[in-house]
Design brief:
- This protein is α+β, with helices and mostly antiparallel strands and 134 residues long.
- It is 31% helix and 16% strand.
- Strands 1-4-5 form a three-stranded mixed β-sheet, sandwiched between helices. A two-stranded antiparallel ribbon has the order 2-3.
- Helix 3 crosses helix 4.
- It starts with 22 loop residues before the first helix and ends with a strand.
């Protein structure tokens, strides 16, 4: 094998970031440099029920060193989710805690010009786990 063959560049196409995430893969990550994780896809906050509570990707990310995980409890609808996450990140960039950033993003969606987005289906499924400090 030549030099570098068989080694995986995490930022290259086909890397772990382009594949399905599972709990074992997440637990192998070291996330101290990426303390806040957002799972904006489908059912990121759910998992199997055990004596420790719900086991899922959020818990795995916390075990890997994430400070907080924002996940959804049900299938997220693309357009309103994108708007909510855009506002969440903008609020975080202004220094808001995760909880405050999520609260303000949800309130904005509930007051959106698009009356359909006001329905809880589009914002109530987002859950922040972990520490909520800025």
């Amino acid at each position: 094998e030549g030099e570098g063959e068989g080694e995986e560049d995490d930022d290259a196409p086909g890397s772990w970031m382009d594949r399905t995430m599972d709990i074992d893969r997440v637990k192998s990550l070291w996330l101290r440099t990426h303390p806040d994780v957002v799972l904006g896809g489908s059912y990121g906050g759910t998992g199997a029920l055990s004596q420790d509570g719900v086991l899922g990707l959020p818990r795995a990310f916390l075990a890997a060193g994430a400070r907080s995980v924002l996940a959804t409890l049900w299938d997220a609808v693309d357009e309103p989710t994108a708007e909510l996450l855009k506002r969440y990140h903008a609020n975080k960039a202004k220094g808001a805690s995760g909880a405050q950033a999520l609260r303000e993003a949800v309130l904005a969606l509930r007051e959106a010009d698009n009356a359909k987005w006001r329905h809880p289906l589009y914002w109530a499924g987002f859950v922040l786990t972990g520490t909520c400090k800025p």
